[in-house]
Design the sequence.
């Protein structure tokens, strides 16, 4: 086990299932090319979240100014900016954890948020942290199978506790908790932090898999740009914060009646 703050040296290996195959199959399309054409194979549906003219200040300092964005099924949205420009704040506003000072956010589906500091429950082991997020009404067999699947995918033992985990292991558990909820909206704050290149590829494949299943993924972070573009190039779009106004409209689907998506049935969180 590596010390806290170090990058993880243990790759995903067989535990990540078909992740390596998914990365290889994703190709190397660029985000710039993707905007000009619709997503192939992604489920169409109405927007899952619409943010309009969002602004936020802290202690008199303007962090976010006039940010508008539409998150639709089958898309991966990267919020990019230098540190301190409001990426984490924006994700928390989109999730409903913080309120904007101005503008509005309309969440049309349930959301799952991965915090930058992981926010794991220290008194629960890895399996318990995943079980904590699942609906109580879920059948015991489904709960067991889903937890086992995601622990295997992120290479963690069910009885390991956060206090004994490296920073990379905590990040992988936090990612598993965000994805295991299987909500239409998945918001990830610095998902690639403390992970090495092999885990970058695995996480990027998880993100693409979620979007291809009809979800919308939005993330903020530094690094791993190559892994993200390699896995999600045809689904990926980028919104650079720090300028005003900042607008990201839904460019993916033609005007007209939406084709329904069975994933778009969640409630706002």
Sequence:
């Amino acid at each position: 086990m590596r010390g806290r703050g170090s990058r993880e040296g243990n790759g995903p290996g067989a535990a990540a299932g078909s992740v390596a195959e998914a990365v290889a199959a994703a190709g190397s399309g660029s985000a710039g090319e993707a905007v000009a054409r619709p997503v192939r194979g992604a489920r169409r549906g109405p927007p899952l979240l619409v943010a309009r003219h969002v602004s936020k200040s802290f202690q008199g300092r303007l962090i976010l100014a006039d940010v508008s964005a539409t998150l639709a099924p089958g898309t991966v949205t990267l919020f990019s900016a230098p540190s301190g420009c409001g990426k984490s704040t924006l994700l928390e506003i989109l999730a409903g954890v913080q309120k904007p000072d101005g503008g509005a956010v309309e969440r049309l589906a349930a959301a799952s948020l991965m915090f930058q500091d992981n926010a794991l429950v220290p008194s629960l082991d890895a399996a318990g942290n995943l079980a904590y997020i699942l609906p109580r009404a879920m059948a015991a067999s489904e709960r067991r199978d889903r937890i086992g699947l995601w622990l295997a995918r992120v290479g963690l033992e069910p009885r390991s506790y956060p206090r004994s985990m490296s920073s990379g292991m905590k990040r992988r558990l936090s990612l598993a908790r965000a994805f295991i909820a299987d909500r239409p909206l998945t918001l990830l704050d610095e998902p690639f932090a403390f992970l090495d290149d092999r885990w970058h590829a695995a996480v990027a494949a998880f993100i693409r898999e979620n979007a291809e299943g009809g979800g919308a993924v939005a993330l903020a972070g530094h690094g791993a740009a190559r892994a993200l573009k390699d896995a999600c190039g045809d689904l990926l779009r980028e919104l650079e914060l720090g300028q005003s106004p900042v607008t990201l409209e839904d460019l993916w689907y033609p005007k007209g009646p939406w084709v329904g998506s069975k994933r778009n049935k969640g409630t706002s969180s």
Notes: The chain has one domain: 30-248. Strands lie at 49-58, 61-71, 75-80, 102-107, 111-114, 185-189, 216-220, 236-240, 246-248. The helical segments are 19-26, 31-34, 87-95, 126-133, 140-153, 167-180, 197-212, 225-232. Confidence is low (pLDDT under 50) at residues 1-6, 13-43, 251-269.
